[in-house]
Amino acid sequence: MDMSQYLQIFIEESNEHVQSLNQCLLQIEKDPEDKNVLNEIFRVAHTIKGMAGTMGFTKMTKLTHVMENVLHAIRNDEIKVTSDLVDVLFKCLDALENYVSSVVATSGEGDKEYKNVISALNEILENKGMVSSSTVKTQVANNVTPLENVKYITAQLEFDEFEQHAINKAIDMGLNALKFTIVLNKGCLLKAARSFIIFQTLERYGEIIKAQPVVQDIEDEKFDFEFTVVVVSKESEQLFSKELNSIAEVEEVISSKLAKFGAEGIPVEDDKKAEVDSQSSEHVEGVATKEADTQDTTKQNTASKKTQRTVRVDIDRLDVLMNLVGELIITKTRLEETDITAKPQEYHETLEYLARITTNLNDSVMKVRMVPVETVFNRFPRMIRDISKDLGKEIELVMSGEETELDRTVIDEIGDPLIHLLRNSCDHGLESTEKRKQLGKSEVGKINLTAYQSGNNVIIEVTDDGAGINTQKIRAKAIENGIVTKDEAAAMSQQEAIELLFRPSFSTADKITGLSGRGVGLDVVKTKIEQLGGTVEVETQSGKGSSFLIKLPLTLAIYQALLVNVGTEKYAIPLGAIYQIYNWQAEDVKTVQGQDVILLRNMVVPITRLANSLEVPDSNSKAQKQLKIVIVRKGEKLTGLVVDSVIGQQEIVIKSLGKLLSGIKYLAGATILGDGNVALIIDVNSIT
Amino acid sequence: MADAQIHEFETKQFIVFSLGEERFGLDSLKITTIDRMKTITRVPKTPNYIKGVINLRGDIIPVMDLRAKFNLPLAEETEETRIIILKLEEVSIGVIVDQVLQTIQLGNDSIENASSLINSSDSDYIFGIGKVDGEIVTLLNFEKLVKL
Fold this sequence. Notes:
The structure holds two protein chains of two kinds.
Chain A: H1 7-30, H2 35-55, H3 58-75, H4 83-106, H5 115-127, H6 133-137, H7 161-172, E1 176-184, H8 191-205, E2 206-212, H9 215-219, E3 226-233, H10 237-245, E4 250-261, E5 267-271, H11 287-304, H12 315-337, H13 344-368, E6 370-372, H14 374-377, H15 380-391, E7 395-400, E8 405-407, H16 408-429, H17 433-439, E9 445-454, E10 457-464, H18 471-480, H19 486-491, H20 494-499, H21 521-531, E11 535-541, E12 545-553, E13 558-566, E14 569-574, E15 578-585, E16 590-592, E17 595-600, E18 603-609, H22 610-613, E19 626-634, E20 637-643, E21 645-655, H23 658-661, E22 667-672, E23 678-682, H24 684-687
Parallel strand pairs in A: 7-9, 14-23, 18-20
Antiparallel strand pairs in A: 1-3, 1-4, 2-3, 4-5, 6-8, 9-10, 10-12, 11-12, 13-14, 13-21, 15-19, 16-17, 17-18, 19-20, 21-22, 22-23
Helix pairs in contact in A: 1-2, 1-4, 2-3, 3-4, 3-5, 4-5, 4-11, 12-13, 15-16, 16-21
Chain B: E1 11-19, E2 22-27, E3 31-36, E4 50-56, E5 59-65, H1 66-69, E6 82-88, E7 91-97, E8 99-107, E9 111-112, H2 120-123, E10 126-132, E11 135-140, H3 142-146
Parallel strand pairs in B: 2-11, 5-7
Antiparallel strand pairs in B: 1-2, 1-8, 3-6, 4-5, 6-7, 9-10, 10-11
């Protein structure tokens, strides 16, 4: 039976169920006796089993079936819920997620059987809840026909068509296709640095075609002590072996030369092994298989991103939408029938009504695109749990305001920056458990993630009660990296020093951990948020904690603006930013340290002449006696924009300036005016 | 030995346009549309060869003056002036040309490699010289042109 039409539904529902399972597992870990949660878990697993069965996904069905058995035993109090048990269940969850990803990418559940997870589950059943750590850890890669002499997990590689083709081509050209499994010293501390050197060496003599785990994971230290790479080069296997073995902390190198791929896609390996450590089989860590999984999933995930373009919409919102469209049609008909010359009054009234309807219609459509931030927030508890285990710190994540809504496009983009900020708080912000005890703080570090609406914006706050941001350290690092001079650093205010953190490649972490310290993070966060039209602010108190505030615009596409003339050009200033408009005598403009200012109600307000900032030709504002100044709000401060004249208020649709021009300072975008011409929108934050 | 560009195609279609006396060609596959001149809104803080943006049926498209880009003297707009809209992956851009002349098919054998003739500053944009009816057509590399 053809199930392909049900694929979309299966995917959507499975994703929801997996999400639900995620939350339930976290809850049951906190409260192992909670029967309700247990029932919920059972119910969800059962539903997934049913769906998978209907779709013919036998492996998924098998996994969920065994899960059900375990859950059933727990329900009957035959097995107790322990942290290890929950770990295994989380692994099941990961497996299910992988299956669903596979379905998204290939419409099939894939080949993985997760025998290890299933055997762990069975073991639980047999031993009534005792999970021997070796089962959890030792996982045998069972998805590739085992090659005889291979004792290393990462050495079992699967090559996709493209890679096979590339390798065949290389061999045809007379190059060598070589496979190296590199095992690092168990005592090796800086694995990332070591692997970097290894990669450099490899790339000096050839080209890396494939790596297991993927290069990114190796750089992020997501591997135990071994990884495998496939290289094409004109150099010999011996040369590479010699070079690699001479790198410090490399325990051993197992090399082999690959021959062309046969029809089945399995490389005929010309095994010429170096000394194989006979005790190596004990070092086979299951983590390697997990990497194989994550590698495949990442490949699939990048392909599948394009397909997740659906939104769940409240029926009420759709009803409102339908009504408005109905009104629109009626008004259109009225307009067609009204004779403008005979009944101008009626015509204008109808036009006004039309204007109201279109505004309401627009609002409704925007609402339909709004999604609660919960969809982004709900993966964080699990992430924090994993991080807290990795770092050995006790961390509690408190979330609120998950029902706050944001436009779907913003939701898609806000996840990564938030993950980064949360990781930063965990890694840098929160002190270790011992330190916290010493300082008299509670042992559990707290991170608050809050979302709320404020005026025209949605604010998302990430607050931790950790050590606060050490501005001294930042200044020192900045001087060290040559970003500022000693004097400049000393002269900087607290706020300015914090801003340094947002510079590219800046990091004050002393060591590079798997999580952070590589210095690419905060500037990417800032850029992403600014691209969404938002801002990032930081508040910190030494010893007490830090707070990152992300401000995002509520509606992306349409807002009220003030149209102004500068020279012969028209510009739009967002109405929300405008405080007031003044006529000012040119002679009343003072200068303070070279900056033009005006004295407004006892406040010194700096002003910017738009004609200058925007390099507008033919502007005569210099000669004018009377200036038109538009006072705008920039954060807490006021600042004035000098324009030639004010045209009026207008509702505008923001259009992006396109990839080439969107980075230009001072401009937030463009809009199309009633006459079809383009007017540029001023970015108040950057122009002053 | 091997030159930088390998012409892998058999015949390619090009749109030929003129800037003053010179003729240029652009790969027609990359061309979305050709429009008459319209009002261009100046965009501050852009290189001088970016004249600004236009409204193309609701989309904002940046427009480049090729004369400025190639350091040719600027010209007056005429009835024949056109904007050729090109698209590369996600990026659209328009180029102002004096006149659009014709479409031609050129095979590998009719295209000569340009590196020996042109000086280095322009050679990036030029991927070959074509011969059509005894006239020389400079074939432009769109990708290089678009890098701001």
